[in-house]
């Protein structure tokens, strides 16, 4: 039996997929007979990234409170992978995307003075990430091919893909109901506005949808629903707990996940674990590693018209939804937490 620390970063009252992975991994490690805990390092706001990396680097993850040795660490994201340990495995969820694939959009929001500062900071972050991910880890895994491609593009850093399984929940399928389900943080990159605009298209007339989650776009999305006259067909359910999530996945007709360049997207594998097809977009990133157009769901152009036709197709054909859902379930049936533990544990 080994003592393993699963290290990730976080802000107070924060969340995210990396914490879902951390908790799932800790549970799987314990079930495999190891001692495991989640350790959080700071994730500081813009302008204080250096302090966050330094805090991670100074974190003592070699010894537990009882004086016993921590045999291995598994880190998940920036700046947690700056920690020091001789048995350090990184299972990377993502680096600070504003300095990588989101740089152009981020750069465009800055003043001229801020742009100068952020360009310098970006170069420093790139250098630090390359050092920590190539010289301070024994093995480097990534959660998706999308992350792998970003590592190759920015840094030419080699890695191995290790897809996370669905989070440990009591998934089931209670049939194929009369509504589309979507769940996500309500932020611009998740593109719930695209889903709402698709439902306003003539092709999707009559299609109902429940959108779960909360975030900065909640008010904007609520106003969009009212402006498009969709109050009777689109429900913003807000934050939901795990059992309510499983219940919606069990009862819905299909799941829509139109995010832009998603790192991975647990929504996809959770839908498949519930035997539900997924409608996603051609630029959605991680979901495309599981969804093949016409097989486990639909992959559409990121336009309201295209998404509307896909939603209408699955909403109007229950046997099709069932066949696609079964194909999705087969696609993720080999993703298991014991296999993840087998690959990540090195002590």
| Count of helix runs | 12
Mean pLDDT: 93
Briefly note the structural class of the backbone. alpha/beta
Enter the CATH topology name of the largest domain: Rossmann fold
β-sheet strand percentage: 15-25%
> How far do the termini sit from each other?
9 Å
CA-based gyration radius: 21 Å
Residue windows where pLDDT falls under 50 for at least 5 positions? none
The total of beta strands comes to 12
Question: Helix and strand string, N-terminal first?
Answer: EHEHEEHHEHEEHEHEHEHEEHHH
The CATH class of the largest domain: Alpha Beta
Count of domain modules: 2
- What is the helical fraction, as a range of percent? 25-40%
**CATH architectural label of the largest domain:** 3-Layer(aba) Sandwich
Per the principal axes of the C-alpha atoms, what is the gross shape?
Answer: globular
Summarize the main sheet. Answer: 6 strands, parallel
As laid out across the biggest beta sheet, the strand order is 2-1-3-4-5-6
Structural features, described:
The protein is α/β, with parallel strands linked by helices and 347 residues long. It has two domains: 160 residues, Rossmann fold; 154 residues, Glycogen Phosphorylase B (Rossmann fold, 3-Layer(aba) Sandwich). It is built from twelve helices and twelve strands. The strands form two sheets. The protein has a six-stranded parallel β-sheet. A six-stranded parallel β-sheet has the order 9-8-7-10-11-12, with helices on both faces. Helix 1 links the parallel strand 1 and strand 2. The longest helix has 24 residues. The chain is globular. The chain starts with a strand and ends with a helix. The model has no long low-confidence stretch (mean pLDDT 93).
């Amino acid at each position: 039996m080994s003592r393993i620390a699963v290290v990730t970063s976080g802000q107070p009252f924060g969340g995210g997929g990396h914490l879902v992975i951390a908790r799932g991994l800790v549970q799987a490690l314990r079930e495999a007979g190891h001692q495991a805990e989640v350790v959080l390092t700071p994730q500081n706001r813009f302008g204080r990234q250096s302090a966050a990396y330094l805090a991670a680097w100074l974190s003592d993850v070699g010894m537990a409170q009882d004086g016993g040795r921590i045999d291995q660490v598994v880190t998940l994201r920036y700046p947690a992978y700056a920690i020091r340990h001789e048995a350090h495995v990184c299972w990377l969820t993502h680096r600070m995307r504003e300095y990588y694939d989101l740089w152009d959009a981020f750069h465009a929001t800055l003043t001229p003075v801020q742009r100068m500062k952020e360009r310098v900071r970006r170069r420093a972050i790139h250098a630090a990430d390359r050092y920590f991910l190539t010289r301070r880890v024994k093995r480097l895994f990534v959660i998706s091919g999308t992350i792998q491609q970003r590592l190759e593009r920015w840094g030419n850093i080699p890695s191995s893909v290790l897809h996370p399984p669905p989070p440990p929940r009591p998934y089931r399928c209670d049939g194929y109901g009369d509504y589309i389900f979507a769940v996500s943080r309500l932020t611009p990159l998740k593109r719930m506005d695209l889903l709402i605009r698709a439902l306003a298209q003539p092709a999707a007339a009559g299609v109902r949808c429940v959108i779960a989650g909360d975030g900065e776009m909640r008010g904007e999305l609520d106003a969009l629903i009212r402006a498009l006259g969709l109050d009777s067909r689109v429900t913003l359910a807000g934050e939901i707990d795990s059992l309510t999530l499983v219940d919606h996945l069990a009862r819905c007709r299909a799941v829509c996940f139109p995010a832009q360049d998603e790192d991975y997207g647990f929504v996809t594998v959770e839908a498949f674990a519930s035997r539900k097809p997924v409608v996603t977009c051609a630029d959605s990133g991680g979901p495309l590693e599981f969804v093949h157009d016409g097989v486990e769901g639909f992959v559409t152009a990121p336009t309201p018209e295209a998404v509307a036709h896909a939603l209408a197709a699955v909403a109007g054909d229950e046997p099709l939804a069932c066949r696609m859902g079964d194909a999705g379930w087969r696609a993720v049936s080999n993703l298991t937490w014991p296999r993840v533990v087998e690959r990540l544990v090195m002590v």
